[in-house]
Amino acid sequence: MSRITSSFSGSSIAWATVIVCAFFFPFYTEDAFVLSLLIPGMIWAVGCMGWTTIVRTGQFSMGQAGFMTIGGYTSALLAVHFQLPFWVTFFVAGAAAALVAFLLGTIVLRLGGIFFAIVTLSFAEVIRVFASNLTITKGSYGFIPPPPTLDIGSWSVNFAVTKVPYYYVSLLFLILAAIVFWRIDSSRLGRIFRSMSSNDRLSEHLGMHLMKYRVMAFAVAGFFTGMAGALYSHYLFFIGPTLFGLWESIMILIMCTVGGVRSAVAGPIIGALLLSISGDYFSTLVKGAKPLAFGLLVVFVVFFLPGGVIDVKRHIQRLFSTEKKSERGLQPSA
Amino acid sequence: MALLELQNVSKHFGKLAALSNVSLEVERGEFVGLVGPNGSGKTTLFNVVSGFYSPSGGKVYYNGEDITGLRPDKITSKGLVRTFQSNILYKEATALENLVRASYLHSNTSSWKAFFNSRDYRENEKAIFERAEAALAHWGLEEVRDVLADELPHGHQRRLGLAVAVAADPELLLLDEPLAGMSGEERLVVMEQVRELSNQGMTIILVEHHVKTVLNLCERLLVLDYGIKIADGKPEEVTCQKTVVQAYLGAEEVVDQCS
Q1: Residue of B nearest to A192 (CA)
Q2: What is the CA radius of gyration of chain B?
């Protein structure tokens, strides 16, 4: 526990600096293009933290896009048909996705490895098919969710004209999610998840109820992934059955692999921002460059940084310690 | 009432009868040796009792309660803990972290309190870490406190495996070849520690291939052969039984001990 405390103290200054810079960034530039690179990156970072949490219990989900679809449609339908404000539909979207995750997880988390991955992939496809064929979801055409509104006294925030309000909502959402996932990882819950992923047979024989914690992680991840889907669909002014599909589920996997799954928070955030920003940026230069950018980054990471970008610090430390060892070897013995 | 009771327990894998109608009772505080040739069903018996397998037939009772087919975590929470033949640890974790993880059943605060880092939770965590440090000292593992389990020498790994099982606070401890691969000196040290656990009142069932070790430690011997219990009694009586000799011990030992 002392190591966790000391690492928090050491990196808390770095995190505080990043958060302060992020808060003041729109004062530096309100350029719509720049913000349009950052906003999706922050939203995907939340989805990535959810996926990483599931992986840290030893399970591999290929269906996170399904929860984003559930979240997106729940929020949009409540806003359109019941005129509920975004600040309510956002959290209801998360709750709906979490409920589905809980029910699905209770049934399928007994499966391991590849079988769970296949079932979650199929689940996401089933959700897409439902969304494509139901009248209430407007079938394959989708529909337009209204932008959020925020009125504080006489001051009104306009989400329809500038991207700055979406930037701050995405940033606050990312910070909230990061705190939740950090808290889970650094507590006894994170220790239990790591135990299960390391050795589930031993963990079970030491008294850990595997299904309880797997479902817990899956439901929490579903909650935040559903909210990510809601925020993203309101940001894009669109929700449709193909908005979140197989590519999005794979994209989350790639982002987390590039960032590094050894870290519950920093790795997924770094991976999501790096890939989302570079993918979107390069696709403005060359059409269709996004998958190419993703592919190149994944190949680079697999060959040179198999633990992900988060492992750079460890590699540098190892490099310096190797240099120190060789220096000692050249010195005459005492 | 016996602490552990098996009534006609069988376990089949297809046509293979790994266990056939095994009945036995283990009283509180006993130190029982479980021996038999390779493939006789010793580990299968442990797997059935600990919930890793459900039996094909029969019942398992612990403290008078039917635990047949219960999940392993439920059985462990009742005080029945087992070790594994292939030394199973959290390989990527340090010796200290292994013992902290093994203290799971000592967590007495809810997941919500853990998440919100309440005072109860922090005190509980402090107690768990102190307990793990004390266990490191007790098992002579303080020097390897921060060494990854995967990097420990074999003897240290097996000692840590034993420490991990004891950290789960067993009332009944099933030890599956805990001394395998240890040097002579290490065996003596660990044997003494296991004997100490028994002296403190823990009920132990020990599977061990080294017959002399079992004869030294155990006050009662159970012998399995092809999944059938063929002997149950004091070591000096069991080792003289013809069926045991034929199955396991060898004719020369019978002549030496039983003449």
Answers
A1: B101
A2: 19
Distance from CA of A14 to the nearest CA of B (A): 23
CA–CA distance from A312 to each of A55, A77, A309, B58 (Å)? 21, 44, 6, 56
pTM of this structure: 0.89
Structure tokens at A171: 């940033």
Chain A residue with minimum CA distance to B111? A189
What are the two backbone dihedrals, phi and then psi, of residue B132, each rounded to the nearest 5 degrees?
Answer: -65, -40
CA angle A93, A161, A171 (to 5 degrees): 50
Contact A206 B104 (CB under 8 A): yes
CB contact (8 A) between residue B71 and residue A204 = yes
pLDDT mean for each 10 residues of chain A (334 residues) = 45 85 85 90 96 94 95 95 93 97 93 88 94 86 88 79 90 96 95 94 94 96 97 94 91 92 91 90 80 84 84 74 48 39
Q: Which fold, B4-258?
A: Rossmann fold (3.40.50)
What residue spans define the domains of chain B? 4-258
ipTM value for the complex:
0.90
On chain A, the residues whose CB falls within 8 A of the CB of B84 are: 201-202, 205
CATH numeric code, A31-330: 1.10.3470
Concatenate the DSSP letters of all residues of A220-273 into one string.
HHHHHHHHHHHHHHHHHT-B-TTSS-HHHHHHHHHHHHHH-TTSSSHHHHHHHH
Residue B86 contacts A where some CB pair is shorter than 8 Å: no
Q: Copy the structure tokens of residue A207.
A: 């008294």
Which A residues, 150 through 189, put their C-beta within 8 Å of a C-beta on chain B?
183-184, 187-189
Closest chain A C-alpha to B177 CA, distance in angstroms: 16
Which of B159, B165, B199, B164 is CA-nearest to residue B181?
A: B159
Average pLDDT value for residue range B16-30 = 93
Judge contact between A104 and A219, C-beta under 8 A: no
Q: Is A110 an 8 Å CB contact of chain B?
A: no
Q: What is the dihedral of CA B193, B199, B205, B208, to 10 degrees?
A: 40
CB contact under 8 A, B71 and A203: no
Backbone angles phi, psi at B19, to 5 degrees: -135, 135
CA distance B258 to B49: 33
> Alpha-carbon distance B55 to B132, whole Å?
35
d(CA B130, CA B254): 50
Q: How far apart are the first and last CA of chain B?
A: 37
SS3 B206: strand
Q: Report residue A322 as tokens.
A: 């190797």
Instruction: List Cβ neighbours of A73 (8 Å cut-off, separation of 6 or more).
Output: A131, A137, A233, A239
CA distance A53 to B95: 24
